[in-house]
Protein backbone atom coordinates (compact mmCIF):
# COMPACT_ATOMS: atom_id res chain seq x y z
CA UNK A 1 0.00 0.00 0.00
CA UNK A 2 1.32 3.41 -0.96
CA UNK A 3 1.75 5.65 2.09
CA UNK A 4 0.44 9.19 1.88
CA UNK A 5 2.22 12.12 3.47
CA UNK A 6 0.73 13.21 6.79
CA UNK A 7 -0.43 16.56 5.44
CA UNK A 8 -2.33 14.76 2.67
CA UNK A 9 -4.12 12.51 5.18
CA UNK A 10 -4.98 15.57 7.23
CA UNK A 11 -6.37 17.49 4.24
CA UNK A 12 -8.56 14.55 3.24
CA UNK A 13 -10.28 14.63 6.62
CA UNK A 14 -11.24 18.29 6.25
CA UNK A 15 -14.30 19.62 4.53
CA UNK A 16 -14.60 23.13 3.15
CA UNK A 17 -17.63 25.34 2.51
CA UNK A 18 -16.19 28.22 0.53
CA UNK A 19 -13.66 29.76 2.93
CA UNK A 20 -15.17 28.05 5.97
CA UNK A 21 -13.49 24.99 7.50
CA UNK A 22 -16.05 22.36 8.52
CA UNK A 23 -14.91 20.08 11.34
CA UNK A 24 -16.30 17.32 13.56
CA UNK A 25 -15.47 15.35 16.72
CA UNK A 26 -12.57 13.59 15.00
CA UNK A 27 -10.59 16.58 13.76
CA UNK A 28 -11.68 19.52 15.95
CA UNK A 29 -8.59 19.35 18.16
CA UNK A 30 -6.23 19.08 15.20
CA UNK A 31 -7.78 22.04 13.36
CA UNK A 32 -8.63 24.37 16.23
CA UNK A 33 -6.36 23.54 19.16
CA UNK A 34 -3.19 22.27 17.45
CA UNK A 35 -2.88 24.57 14.45
CA UNK A 36 -1.29 27.60 16.16
CA UNK A 37 -4.01 29.72 14.54
CA UNK A 38 -6.86 31.83 15.87
CA UNK A 39 -10.17 30.12 15.16
CA UNK A 40 -13.59 31.74 15.20
CA UNK A 41 -15.92 28.77 15.64
CA UNK A 42 -19.64 28.46 15.06
CA UNK A 43 -21.37 25.60 16.87
CA UNK A 44 -24.63 24.90 15.03
CA UNK A 45 -27.35 22.32 14.34
CA UNK A 46 -28.61 21.72 10.82
CA UNK A 47 -32.26 21.90 11.97
CA UNK A 48 -31.81 25.29 13.68
CA UNK A 49 -33.61 28.12 11.86
CA UNK A 50 -31.40 30.80 13.46
CA UNK A 51 -28.33 28.90 12.25
CA UNK A 52 -29.68 28.78 8.70
CA UNK A 53 -30.47 32.47 8.78
CA UNK A 54 -26.89 33.46 9.65
CA UNK A 55 -25.26 31.29 6.94
CA UNK A 56 -24.70 34.17 4.45
CA UNK A 57 -23.34 36.42 7.20
CA UNK A 58 -20.89 33.73 8.34
CA UNK A 59 -19.82 33.08 4.75
CA UNK A 60 -19.23 36.79 4.25
CA UNK A 61 -16.99 36.86 7.33
CA UNK A 62 -15.02 33.87 6.01
CA UNK A 63 -14.50 35.66 2.69
CA UNK A 64 -13.32 38.74 4.56
CA UNK A 65 -10.59 36.83 6.45
CA UNK A 66 -9.72 34.37 3.67
CA UNK A 67 -6.34 36.00 2.95
CA UNK A 68 -5.24 36.21 6.60
CA UNK A 69 -3.12 33.13 7.19
CA UNK A 70 -3.28 33.02 10.99
CA UNK A 71 -7.07 33.32 11.25
CA UNK A 72 -9.57 30.64 10.30
CA UNK A 73 -13.35 30.63 10.28
CA UNK A 74 -14.61 27.24 11.45
CA UNK A 75 -17.97 25.58 11.99
CA UNK A 76 -19.08 22.33 13.59
CA UNK A 77 -22.47 20.64 13.77
CA UNK A 78 -22.45 20.24 17.55
CA UNK A 79 -25.76 18.39 17.48
CA UNK A 80 -24.04 15.57 15.59
CA UNK A 81 -20.55 16.05 17.05
CA UNK A 82 -21.80 15.86 20.60
CA UNK A 83 -18.44 15.15 22.17
CA UNK A 84 -17.16 18.61 21.28
CA UNK A 85 -20.52 20.17 22.07
CA UNK A 86 -20.47 18.64 25.55
CA UNK A 87 -16.86 19.67 26.14
CA UNK A 88 -17.71 23.34 25.57
CA UNK A 89 -21.15 23.21 27.22
CA UNK A 90 -23.03 24.07 24.06
CA UNK A 91 -26.64 24.33 25.21
CA UNK A 92 -28.17 26.44 22.42
CA UNK A 93 -27.63 27.04 18.72
CA UNK A 94 -25.92 28.83 17.24
CA UNK A 95 -23.15 29.38 19.79
CA UNK A 96 -19.99 31.17 18.70
CA UNK A 97 -16.61 31.13 20.41
CA UNK A 98 -13.24 32.67 19.60
CA UNK A 99 -10.21 30.45 20.21
CA UNK A 100 -7.28 32.87 20.24
CA UNK A 101 -3.93 31.39 19.29
CA UNK A 102 -2.43 32.77 22.51
CA UNK A 103 -5.25 31.48 24.74
CA UNK A 104 -6.70 28.32 23.20
CA UNK A 105 -7.81 26.83 26.52
CA UNK A 106 -9.97 29.85 27.35
CA UNK A 107 -12.25 30.63 24.39
CA UNK A 108 -14.15 33.93 24.35
CA UNK A 109 -17.92 33.84 23.82
CA UNK A 110 -19.45 36.01 21.12
CA UNK A 111 -22.78 37.43 22.30
CA UNK A 112 -23.51 40.13 19.73
CA UNK A 113 -25.86 40.31 16.77
CA UNK A 114 -25.35 37.49 14.29
CA UNK A 115 -24.48 39.72 11.37
CA UNK A 116 -21.26 40.23 9.42
CA UNK A 117 -20.40 43.74 10.73
CA UNK A 118 -20.73 42.56 14.33
CA UNK A 119 -18.68 39.40 13.69
CA UNK A 120 -16.00 41.45 11.96
CA UNK A 121 -15.83 44.16 14.64
CA UNK A 122 -15.63 41.57 17.42
CA UNK A 123 -12.86 39.65 15.69
CA UNK A 124 -10.76 42.69 14.82
CA UNK A 125 -11.13 44.07 18.37
CA UNK A 126 -10.05 40.76 19.87
CA UNK A 127 -7.03 40.05 17.70
CA UNK A 128 -6.15 43.45 16.23
CA UNK A 129 -6.43 42.25 12.64
CA UNK A 130 -9.08 43.47 10.22
CA UNK A 131 -10.38 41.45 7.30
CA UNK A 132 -10.80 42.96 3.88
CA UNK A 133 -14.08 44.68 3.14
CA UNK A 134 -16.55 42.48 1.31
CA UNK A 135 -20.00 43.37 0.10
CA UNK A 136 -23.07 41.37 1.02
CA UNK A 137 -23.50 38.14 -0.94
CA UNK A 138 -25.95 38.33 -3.81
CA UNK A 139 -29.46 37.27 -2.86
CA UNK A 140 -30.43 36.73 -6.50
CA UNK A 141 -31.54 33.10 -6.97
CA UNK A 142 -29.96 31.27 -9.90
CA UNK A 143 -32.80 29.76 -11.93
CA UNK A 144 -32.39 26.95 -14.48
CA UNK A 145 -34.48 24.21 -16.09
CA UNK A 146 -33.86 21.89 -13.15
CA UNK A 147 -35.22 24.17 -10.43
CA UNK A 148 -37.70 26.44 -12.24
CA UNK A 149 -40.62 24.39 -10.93
CA UNK A 150 -39.41 24.68 -7.34
CA UNK A 151 -38.76 28.41 -7.41
CA UNK A 152 -41.17 29.85 -9.96
CA UNK A 153 -44.24 27.60 -10.19
CA UNK A 154 -45.48 28.59 -6.74
CA UNK A 155 -49.05 29.87 -6.66
CA UNK A 156 -48.41 31.86 -3.48
CA UNK A 157 -45.40 33.78 -4.74
CA UNK A 158 -44.46 36.20 -7.54
CA UNK A 159 -41.19 36.03 -9.45
CA UNK A 160 -39.00 38.66 -11.10
CA UNK A 161 -36.59 37.08 -13.57
CA UNK A 162 -33.54 38.55 -15.30
CA UNK A 163 -32.31 36.74 -18.41
CA UNK A 164 -28.61 37.28 -19.14
CA UNK A 165 -25.76 35.92 -21.23
CA UNK A 166 -22.03 36.21 -20.60
CA UNK A 167 -20.68 37.28 -23.97
CA UNK A 168 -21.37 40.52 -25.85
CA UNK A 169 -23.79 41.87 -23.27
CA UNK A 170 -22.45 44.94 -21.49
CA UNK A 171 -25.98 45.90 -20.45
CA UNK A 172 -26.31 42.60 -18.62
CA UNK A 173 -23.62 43.68 -16.15
CA UNK A 174 -25.43 46.93 -15.40
CA UNK A 175 -28.83 45.28 -14.94
CA UNK A 176 -27.35 42.51 -12.77
CA UNK A 177 -26.22 45.22 -10.38
CA UNK A 178 -29.77 46.58 -10.27
CA UNK A 179 -31.06 43.07 -9.61
CA UNK A 180 -28.57 42.58 -6.77
CA UNK A 181 -29.89 45.78 -5.19
CA UNK A 182 -33.48 44.68 -5.77
CA UNK A 183 -32.85 41.30 -4.14
CA UNK A 184 -31.20 42.99 -1.15
CA UNK A 185 -34.19 45.31 -0.77
CA UNK A 186 -36.73 42.47 -0.87
CA UNK A 187 -34.83 39.67 0.87
CA UNK A 188 -37.33 39.88 3.75
CA UNK A 189 -40.19 39.24 1.34
CA UNK A 190 -39.13 35.78 0.14
CA UNK A 191 -42.56 34.44 1.01
CA UNK A 192 -44.00 36.90 -1.54
CA UNK A 193 -41.45 37.12 -4.35
CA UNK A 194 -38.35 35.48 -5.78
CA UNK A 195 -35.73 37.65 -7.49
CA UNK A 196 -33.92 35.34 -9.92
CA UNK A 197 -31.42 35.24 -12.78
CA UNK A 198 -31.53 32.86 -15.76
CA UNK A 199 -28.11 32.62 -17.43
CA UNK A 200 -27.85 31.55 -21.05
CA UNK A 201 -24.21 30.53 -20.66
CA UNK A 202 -24.37 29.26 -17.09
CA UNK A 203 -23.41 25.86 -15.70
CA UNK A 204 -27.00 24.57 -15.86
CA UNK A 205 -29.32 24.24 -18.91
CA UNK A 206 -31.86 27.03 -19.34
CA UNK A 207 -33.22 26.44 -22.87
CA UNK A 208 -36.66 25.33 -21.69
CA UNK A 209 -37.04 28.29 -19.31
CA UNK A 210 -35.92 30.84 -21.90
CA UNK A 211 -38.21 29.35 -24.55
CA UNK A 212 -41.14 29.42 -22.12
CA UNK A 213 -40.84 33.20 -21.94
CA UNK A 214 -39.83 33.66 -25.62
CA UNK A 215 -36.53 35.28 -24.70
CA UNK A 216 -34.52 36.40 -27.74
CA UNK A 217 -32.78 39.52 -26.43
CA UNK A 218 -30.46 40.12 -23.47
CA UNK A 219 -30.90 41.41 -20.89
CA UNK A 220 -34.64 40.74 -20.59
CA UNK A 221 -36.81 40.99 -17.49
CA UNK A 222 -40.14 39.29 -16.88
CA UNK A 223 -42.52 39.38 -13.94
CA UNK A 224 -44.43 36.15 -13.31
CA UNK A 225 -47.87 36.25 -11.69
CA UNK A 226 -47.97 33.77 -8.81
CA UNK A 227 -46.55 30.67 -10.45
CA UNK A 228 -48.39 30.99 -13.76
CA UNK A 229 -45.77 30.70 -16.51
CA UNK A 230 -48.43 31.66 -19.04
CA UNK A 231 -49.18 34.92 -17.24
CA UNK A 232 -46.14 37.15 -17.24
CA UNK A 233 -45.23 40.74 -17.95
CA UNK A 234 -42.17 42.02 -19.80
CA UNK A 235 -40.45 44.86 -17.94
CA UNK A 236 -38.86 47.63 -19.98
CA UNK A 237 -37.79 50.07 -17.25
CA UNK A 238 -34.65 48.54 -15.80
CA UNK A 239 -33.24 51.19 -13.45
CA UNK A 240 -32.97 50.26 -9.78
CA UNK A 241 -35.55 52.88 -8.81
CA UNK A 242 -38.03 51.73 -11.45
CA UNK A 243 -37.68 48.07 -10.48
CA UNK A 244 -38.11 48.92 -6.80
CA UNK A 245 -41.26 50.92 -7.50
CA UNK A 246 -42.67 48.19 -9.75
CA UNK A 247 -42.24 45.41 -7.17
CA UNK A 248 -43.60 47.55 -4.33
CA UNK A 249 -46.71 48.28 -6.38
CA UNK A 250 -47.23 44.62 -7.25
CA UNK A 251 -46.70 43.34 -3.71
CA UNK A 252 -48.35 46.21 -1.85
CA UNK A 253 -45.11 46.65 0.08
CA UNK A 254 -43.21 49.77 1.12
CA UNK A 255 -39.57 48.73 0.79
CA UNK A 256 -36.85 51.34 0.40
CA UNK A 257 -33.64 50.63 -1.52
CA UNK A 258 -31.78 49.77 1.70
CA UNK A 259 -34.30 47.05 2.53
CA UNK A 260 -35.91 49.02 5.34
CA UNK A 261 -39.47 50.27 5.23
CA UNK A 262 -40.18 53.70 3.78
CA UNK A 263 -42.12 56.41 5.60
CA UNK A 264 -45.50 55.27 4.23
CA UNK A 265 -45.20 51.72 5.57
CA UNK A 266 -47.81 51.02 8.22
CA UNK A 267 -50.36 53.44 6.76
CA UNK A 268 -53.30 51.79 4.97
CA UNK A 269 -54.28 54.07 2.04
CA UNK A 270 -57.99 53.15 1.98
CA UNK A 271 -58.27 53.91 5.70
CA UNK A 272 -57.07 57.51 5.37
CA UNK A 273 -60.47 59.21 5.46
CA UNK A 274 -61.97 56.98 8.20
CA UNK A 275 -58.80 57.33 10.31
CA UNK A 276 -58.77 61.14 10.01
CA UNK A 277 -62.40 61.26 11.14
CA UNK A 278 -61.88 58.73 13.94
CA UNK A 279 -58.88 60.57 15.40
CA UNK A 280 -60.19 64.09 14.83
CA UNK A 281 -63.59 63.82 16.51
CA UNK A 282 -64.23 63.79 20.25
CA UNK A 283 -64.47 60.64 22.33
CA UNK A 284 -68.28 60.66 22.55
CA UNK A 285 -68.76 60.87 18.78
CA UNK A 286 -65.85 58.46 18.34
CA UNK A 287 -67.67 55.79 20.33
CA UNK A 288 -70.69 56.26 18.11
CA UNK A 289 -68.51 56.04 14.98
CA UNK A 290 -66.34 53.08 15.99
CA UNK A 291 -68.63 50.38 14.55
CA UNK A 292 -68.55 52.07 11.14
CA UNK A 293 -64.76 52.47 11.38
CA UNK A 294 -64.35 48.75 12.14
CA UNK A 295 -66.45 47.90 9.08
CA UNK A 296 -64.02 49.90 6.94
CA UNK A 297 -61.11 48.06 8.57
CA UNK A 298 -62.67 44.66 7.86
CA UNK A 299 -62.64 45.44 4.14
CA UNK A 300 -58.84 45.87 4.09
CA UNK A 301 -56.90 43.02 2.45
CA UNK A 302 -55.19 41.50 5.48
CA UNK A 303 -53.03 39.29 3.28
CA UNK A 304 -51.18 42.51 2.42
CA UNK A 305 -51.80 44.58 5.55
CA UNK A 306 -51.90 41.85 8.21
CA UNK A 307 -49.72 43.60 10.82
CA UNK A 308 -51.15 47.01 10.00
CA UNK A 309 -54.75 45.86 10.57
CA UNK A 310 -53.80 44.43 13.96
CA UNK A 311 -52.16 47.69 15.05
CA UNK A 312 -55.05 49.82 13.80
CA UNK A 313 -57.38 47.67 15.92
CA UNK A 314 -55.15 48.09 18.97
CA UNK A 315 -55.07 51.85 18.54
CA UNK A 316 -58.88 51.93 18.17
CA UNK A 317 -59.23 50.24 21.56
CA UNK A 318 -56.85 52.71 23.20
CA UNK A 319 -58.69 55.73 21.79
CA UNK A 320 -62.09 54.35 22.78
CA UNK A 321 -60.76 53.71 26.29
CA UNK A 322 -59.72 57.37 26.46
CA UNK A 323 -56.00 56.64 26.91
CA UNK A 324 -54.74 60.12 26.07
CA UNK A 325 -51.09 59.24 26.75
CA UNK A 326 -50.99 56.16 24.53
CA UNK A 327 -49.64 57.67 21.29
CA UNK A 328 -46.83 59.65 22.93
CA UNK A 329 -45.85 56.71 25.15
CA UNK A 330 -45.74 54.35 22.16
CA UNK A 331 -43.70 56.83 20.14
CA UNK A 332 -41.10 57.13 22.90
CA UNK A 333 -40.95 53.35 23.35
CA UNK A 334 -40.50 52.58 19.67
CA UNK A 335 -38.00 55.38 19.01
CA UNK A 336 -35.85 53.85 21.74
CA UNK A 337 -36.29 50.37 20.34
CA UNK A 338 -35.39 51.45 16.82
CA UNK A 339 -32.12 52.91 18.11
CA UNK A 340 -31.26 49.68 19.92
CA UNK A 341 -28.65 47.80 17.87
CA UNK A 342 -29.57 44.54 19.56
CA UNK A 343 -33.02 44.56 17.95
CA UNK A 344 -33.20 42.16 14.99
CA UNK A 345 -33.86 43.51 11.50
CA UNK A 346 -37.24 41.75 11.22
CA UNK A 347 -38.46 43.32 14.46
CA UNK A 348 -37.28 46.73 13.29
CA UNK A 349 -39.65 46.42 10.33
CA UNK A 350 -42.57 46.10 12.72
CA UNK A 351 -41.25 48.97 14.85
CA UNK A 352 -40.86 51.18 11.78
CA UNK A 353 -44.38 50.39 10.66
CA UNK A 354 -45.84 51.33 14.04
CA UNK A 355 -43.76 54.50 14.29
CA UNK A 356 -44.96 55.67 10.88
CA UNK A 357 -48.60 55.19 11.84
CA UNK A 358 -48.19 56.88 15.23
CA UNK A 359 -46.46 59.88 13.64
CA UNK A 360 -49.24 60.07 11.06
CA UNK A 361 -51.90 59.98 13.80
CA UNK A 362 -50.19 62.94 15.48
CA UNK A 363 -50.87 64.99 12.33
CA UNK A 364 -54.59 64.11 12.50
CA UNK A 365 -55.12 65.30 16.08
CA UNK A 366 -57.53 68.23 16.50
CA UNK A 367 -58.74 70.29 19.47
CA UNK A 368 -61.54 67.74 19.85
CA UNK A 369 -59.38 64.60 19.92
CA UNK A 370 -58.52 64.42 23.61
CA UNK A 371 -61.38 66.34 25.22
CA UNK A 372 -62.83 64.51 28.19
CA UNK A 373 -66.23 62.84 27.77
CA UNK A 374 -67.64 64.51 30.89
CA UNK A 375 -66.85 67.97 29.51
CA UNK A 376 -68.46 67.15 26.19
CA UNK A 377 -71.58 65.72 27.83
CA UNK A 378 -71.86 68.69 30.17
CA UNK A 379 -71.56 71.09 27.26
CA UNK A 380 -74.25 69.23 25.34
CA UNK A 381 -76.56 69.06 28.32
CA UNK A 382 -76.17 72.81 28.84
CA UNK A 383 -76.87 73.44 25.15
CA UNK A 384 -79.94 71.21 25.33
CA UNK A 385 -81.19 72.93 28.47
CA UNK A 386 -80.56 76.31 26.92
CA UNK A 387 -82.67 75.26 23.97
CA UNK A 388 -85.49 74.15 26.29
CA UNK A 389 -85.37 77.39 28.26
CA UNK A 390 -85.34 79.54 25.16
CA UNK A 391 -88.55 81.68 25.01
CA UNK A 392 -90.94 80.72 22.26
CA UNK A 393 -90.95 83.06 19.31
CA UNK A 394 -94.17 84.63 18.13
CA UNK A 395 -94.46 82.37 15.07
CA UNK A 396 -94.00 79.31 17.34
CA UNK A 397 -97.12 80.09 19.42
Label this structure with key terms:
397 residues, alpha/beta, Glutaredoxin, 3 domains, six-stranded mixed beta sheet, ERp29_C, disulfide bond, EC 5.3.4.1, protein disulfide-isomerase, ERp29_C_sf
Explain how this protein is built.
Helices cover about 45% and strands about 15% of the residues. The chain has about 400 residues and is of the alpha/beta class. The chain has 3 domains: about 5-125, Glutaredoxin; about 140-250, 3-Layer(aba) Sandwich (Glutaredoxin); about 270-375. The strands form 2 sheets. Strands 1-2-4-3-5-6 form a 6-stranded mixed beta sheet. A 5-stranded mixed beta sheet has the order 7-9-8-10-11. The model is unreliable at about 1-15 (pLDDT under 50).
What is the CATH homologous superfamily assignment of the largest domain?
Glutaredoxin
- What's the count of strands? 11
The tally of domains stands at: 3
The count of helical stretches stands at 16
Largest sheet: 6 strands, mixed
**The CATH top-level class label of the largest domain:** Alpha Beta
Strand order of the largest sheet: 1-2-4-3-5-6
Q: Distance between the terminal alpha carbons, to the nearest Å?
A: 127 Å
Classification by helices and strands = alpha/beta
Question: What is the mean pLDDT?
Answer: 87
Quick overview:
It is built from 16 helices and eleven strands. The protein is of the alpha/beta class and 397 residues long. Helix 8 (170-185) links the parallel strand 8 (158-164) and strand 9 (193-199).
Amino acid sequence: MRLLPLWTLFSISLAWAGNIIVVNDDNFDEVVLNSDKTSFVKFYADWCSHCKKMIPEWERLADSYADIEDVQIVEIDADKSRGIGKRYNIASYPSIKLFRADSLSDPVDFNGQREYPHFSNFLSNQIGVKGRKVGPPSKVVQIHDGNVEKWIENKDRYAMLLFTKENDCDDCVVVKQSFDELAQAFHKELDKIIIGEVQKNGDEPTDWTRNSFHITEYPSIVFVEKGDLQSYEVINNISSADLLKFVNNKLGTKRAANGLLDTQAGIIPEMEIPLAKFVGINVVDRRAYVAEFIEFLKKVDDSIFKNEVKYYALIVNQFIAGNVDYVDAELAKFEKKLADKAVAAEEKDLVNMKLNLLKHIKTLVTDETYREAKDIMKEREEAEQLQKDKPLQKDEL
